[in-house]
Amino acid sequence: MNRVVHPIEQESFRRLRARLDTSHFPPLTRAVVERVVHSAADLEYATDLVTDEGDLAKAHAALHAGAPVVVDVEMVAAGITRRETVCRLPDAESGPGLTRSAHAIRLAYEQVGPGALWVIGNAPTALEELLTLDASPALVIGLPVGFVGAVESKAALRESGLPAVSNVSEKGGSAVAAAALNALLYHPTSEENL
Asked: Is the full-model pTM beyond 0.85?
């Protein structure tokens, strides 16, 4: 899966690395950190993100083996390149004690079952709902943004023990969630390194 990198992107990453030393991160963590920092032009993500290299390696393998990718909103889907995604928000309905975003997660799980990569960049309630399911995810990229529920939902994700990428602060959003998934998509597989 050779990807042609535009000269502007190359220069942007050169400047990022001139301002932020990422050389101490293991390879997949470095890829995620750099792409998230790049997507937001926010160097603080280097200390705000929470990742585990082992989880990322397993997720990278699952992703490149064709595991489904589920997103909470179309804006996350729009940011993920080179891969089809599942977004059930257009089909979802809110109800008593259930947001549209949470219902969309239920619908998506019914569609894809266990083993998917879940990319949540908008709705804390989507992440909260995912944590109530027995989804057995390959990875949860839980980076919802906001002042209500975002920090708490990401803390609950980390406490769940599920393989995850999250962050500690209120920051997040569609662009950074998509960037974290793209980092895994763009990172070469061992076959591509040969």
From this structure: yes
